[in-house]
Write a structure and sequence with these properties.
172 residues; mainly alpha; elongated
């Protein structure tokens, strides 16, 4: 879907960067930096997708208020907060740096795993969107949204737990 951002970054080098990569040791360092840059860019794209879900959740919540369903609106209020927190966590997550004297070194394989993990977070955008579809349909039909609202809360907690496992990708 997004393609491999690392390859795109590496292929967009200018002549000076290509020449610098031929310096012994520098090329490997630069490739690692490009992997980190690709992961950071990917996380920003993932966060933007979750932001769009958040915007949609806010609109659904506003529709509930307009329809006079204050119970439904209050049910979604916690989901709004949890989703905003998830977006913030994705945006500010570490992207695989390790210092010269750190006990844990982040190698190319770990950076690739980190990239794959961050890419897999896109699946959550789809699952949240499907739940929002159910909430919107229930609301439009004048039915209670309790079941779908609870499913939304459960899925958000699952996504938070999943994202908390991100650090283990570097450690494994």
């Amino acid at each position: 879907m997004l393609g491999d951002l690392t390859e795109k970054i590496q292929s967009s080098q200018n002549k000076l960067e290509s020449l610098a990569n031929k310096i012994p040791g520098y090329g490997g360092y630069r490739q690692k930096e490009q992997r980190r840059d690709a992961d950071k860019l990917l996380r920003m794209l993932v966060a933007e997708q979750y932001d769009q879900v958040l915007d949609r959740l806010n609109r659904v919540q506003q529709d509930l208020v307009t329809a006079g369903d204050l119970t439904g609106m209050m049910l979604l209020e916690r989901a709004v907060s949890r989703l905003q927190l998830l977006v913030d966590r994705i945006r500010t997550a570490s992207y695989g740096y390790s210092g010269l004297f750190d006990a844990i070194k982040v190698d190319d394989q770990a950076l690739d795993k980190l990239y794959d993990f961050d890419h897999s977070m896109m699946d959550g955008v789809t699952s949240l969107g499907e739940i929002l579809d159910r909430i919107a349909a229930s609301s439009a039909a004048g039915e209670p949204i309790q079941e779908a609202g609870n499913a939304l809360a459960t899925d958000l907690e699952r996504l938070h737990r999943l994202f908390s496992e991100r650090q283990q990708v570097i450690l494994s």
